[in-house]
Specification:
The chain is an alpha/beta fold and about 325 residues long. It has 14 helices and six strands. The protein has a six-stranded parallel beta sheet, sandwiched between helices.
Length: about 325
């Protein structure tokens, strides 16, 4: 890692992303078109996975990476959620008792929880950087491990923690523009949160034009680690299913650097409020309807079934096409 500009390694990766295989994607969609299903969401999924992997689309080893972090901005009392709830979820995932644990078992999905120094909150972004660039780079590198172990689809989600919505809002404002109040969900603390986001954007005005530097200054460890995971998957031609507002904010940082950086991403379900706006900006259409899942990775786990169905159709159509050409010869 270069000591001078620690994030340069990741900037270099963004320059070296493999091109998508438009031919493979087109061929996959063509198979659906011959069956009159070319405009379906399932065709979109099969075509995306074919284009990303450059081969016959498959998903036999999906893996869910759940990231958890703690935020300095939480000290302003802007949320009813407490850190013990986050710790309890991390523990439940570890013991196999979390809702997402059951769904991962049922859908044959690997599960790994990245507990990112929950005892040590990041800097309070309203007055200071969340992380320096060296820390952000190390955290992104740690997140890249999500693709280790041969996962052929990465599900990226987070465990809710106090302040994460406020941090996501700051990132959405930085990368998509607009007023903090427009991005924040209505609620008890909306006004105070908007003030804090405005303060954060003012404090870090100098780096807002540099997406990775902005991610370090405004984000949190789980945001940086997730960005690392998404980028690693892009470079290694592994499709990603994003789950939740934190994932959308992490994806937004990469998108701001280069929209092609999230060309391998799908969205699990329609997030509420700000997440929906962000998804539209990123051009992501959810795989599931709203309200089906309960966050914290559950939507991504459910969405793998939709992806598997798309790939099963593709395999069936491909077999039919092969049989037909064989028959003609």
């Amino acid at each position: 890692m270069s000591t001078e500009h620690p994030l340069d390694d990741f900037r270099a990766l963004l320059q070296r992303m493999p091109a998508l295989d438009a031919q493979a994607g087109g061929a996959a969609r063509q198979l659906f078109e011959t069956q009159g299903a070319g405009e379906s969401r399932l065709a979109d999924v099969a075509a995306l996975i074919a284009a990303v992997t450059g081969g016959r689309p498959s998903m036999s080893r999906p893996s869910l990476a759940l990231f958890a972090g703690a935020h300095g901005i939480a000290r302003h009392g802007i949320s009813s959620r407490r850190m013990d709830a986050t710790l309890a979820t991390v523990a439940a995932c570890g013991s196999g008792d979390a809702p997402v644990s059951h769904l991962c078992a049922a859908n044959m999905i690997g599960l790994k929880v990245y507990d990112l120094a929950l005892h040590l909150p990041t800097g309070d972004i309203s007055t200071a950087p969340a992380m320096d660039e060296r820390n952000a780079a190390a955290t992104m590198a740690f997140g890249m491990e999500a693709i280790a172990g041969g996962a052929d689809c990465v599900l990226a989600g987070s465990i809710a923690s106090t302040g994460d919505e406020t941090v996501a809002t700051a990132l959405f404002c930085a990368f998509h523009g607009g007023d903090p109040a427009e991005w924040l969900p209505e609620g008890d603390h909306a006004l105070r949160r908007a003030e804090l986001v405005s303060a954060a954007l003012g404090t870090h005005r100098a780096v807002l034009g540099d997406p990775l530097a902005a991610l370090a200054a405004l984000g949190g460890r789980e945001f940086a680690a997730m960005a690392g995971a998404i980028l690693a998957a892009r470079v290694e031609k592994v499709p990603v299913i994003l789950d939740g507002v934190t994932a959308l904010a992490a994806a937004s940082a990469l998108w701001a650097a280069d929209p092609a950086a999230i060309a391998h991403c799908m969205l699990a379900d329609a997030p509420a409020g700000a997440g929906q706006r962000a998804a539209e900006r990123l051009g992501l259409v959810p795989l599931l309807g709203e309200g089906l899942a309960g966050g914290e990775g559950t939507a991504a786990a459910l969405a793998t079934a939709t992806v598997r169905d798309a790939l099963a159709l593709h395999a069936g159509f491909a077999a039919q096409a092969r049989a037909a050409t064989h028959h003609h010869h």
